[in-house]
Amino acid sequence: MTFKAPDSLAEQIAQHLADRIIRGELKPGERIQEQKVTQALNVSRGSVREALLILERRHLVAILPRRGAQVTVLDAHNVTSLCTLMSELYILLAVAVASRWKAQEDLVPFLDIQRRLRASYESQDVKAFVEESFNVMRASYPFADNPYLQETVENLQPSMNRSYFLALDERKAEMSNYLALFDQLLEAVLARDLAKVRSVLVSYGQRSCQLVISALAAG
Fold first, then answer.
1. Domain membership of residue 27 as a residue range
2. pLDDT at 6
């Protein structure tokens, strides 16, 4: 495999490994050996080490003394902790959009994402559905205008992506519930109803958490 610009080599390697972790090809607790990755991807060992540091910052890998890098473990406590925090970050972003949009045109990116979510649901494309759900957050960044919030969300997003992918892959029927919640969220944003924004996203976070924990138990 060959990697090219525009992303840095380490970022591309990190994304490749992250995709494998998210899809479950690299299992929780599995060791990631630098030499094997170097040989498999035909890249330098230094680039692989840098990629693993990126994955550690994104909570997909833990680097342990004398044991190297291994895929982080998904358990009920970790999932609950992550969902609780991400729910509050989602609320911050959604409140920013609801408070600061000025014209209907400002909401067009969210309506486009809504259409793509429906298309992904109809084709039962779990990966595309999860990716589009996170595009909602990225479309919200300009309204929040908070680089610290954006960095935090971006670093936590791969772990949430991993959790959502696991849950949706186990129960594709649940995708319809995500669509309904997103519809409610857009209505609340349009009405600038901040209390409803919080209520919808708290419900979303709780449902997501329960779904992931159930999928973990079933696995």
1. 9-71
2. 47
